[in-house]
Amino acid sequence: MRKWFKVLLSLTVACMLIITLAACNPGNEKVRIAEVTRSIFYAPQYVAIEKGFFEEEGLDIELTTVFGGDKVMTTLLSDGAEIGLVGSETSIYVYAQGSNDPVINFAQLTQTDGTFLVARENIGEFSWDQLKGSTFLGQRKGGMPQMVGEFVLKKHGIDPHNDLNLIQNIDFANISSAFASGTGDYVQLFEPQASVFEKEGIGHVVASFGTESGHVPYTTFMAKQSYMDENKETIEKFTRALYKAQGWIQTASAREIAETIQPYFEDTELDIIEMSVDRYRSQGSFATDPILDEEEWNNLQAIMDEAGELPQQVDHKTLVNTEIAESVIEE
């Protein structure tokens, strides 16, 4: 009898705890985010969730990875999510198609390209001229990684379509496995794959496209104009939580950051996550505040134009809202 009483008492206490925890956030607003991919590059977003910064603002975040900028836009436009995390170029593509409800960039997450040039051989001292005549495994045509890649190659006097064998018909998810199986002399990769290849001896990081291309609004949070007009307070809360995470990530150790975001990368060793975070932070990839300024916006369009992918020039104020980020920072 005592045994059953103890079990019953334990269950009662557990139920009361669950009810108490649920009651702590009775008025939290659900916000759905559609992210373009799952990446250590987006560490501040996962920090904002795991450290409770969104919850402090009364927001419950539902995060979905939809794999592809076009899919993020489709999800946003069809009201499958309130907020998208994707490259700013996608908002230009949508605008150029004549959308009567444009997608507005309101908070910047990353401010450089996130890819690295990985060589198959350990070539010692690297120079960009060494790419000439090589087979280069690039990214998908029209996407920011490929556009930045071509921009950097041209900056160093390399014609990507004539001076090397450029391969860009492999799906994003299969690029790393293609290189691992022997395709290409060089490959353009995100973390943590670049660090994994270094550790396994498959390749060697020789340059950073992020360092070479300068500041661009590489990944930003965006929402439809209509949603922002009707939910200004929600966007403010969201931006405030992000800004808290951006501040925290600048002062925490790479190890602390890695431990915080590890639940999102269960198949990646903690040391690799730490190495990737450190590499991104040391080159200034994580935006230190949510403001997407005009210089970055113009740099983005210059890169798109150089790649022949800019459908039209769009003024910064047309697709970027900095007022909310500025007001959050002033607080």
From TrEMBL:
It is found in: Periplasm. GO terms for cellular component: periplasmic space. Residues 43-248 form the SsuA/THI5-like domain. Residues 1-22 form the signal peptide. It comes from the Bacteria. Coiled coil: none annotated. It holds the Pfam family NMT1. Keywords: Signal. Belongs to the bacterial solute-binding protein SsuA/TauA family. This is NitT/TauT family transport system substrate-binding protein. It comes from Bacillus oleivorans. The lineage of its organism: Bacteria, Bacillati, Bacillota, Bacilli, Bacillales.
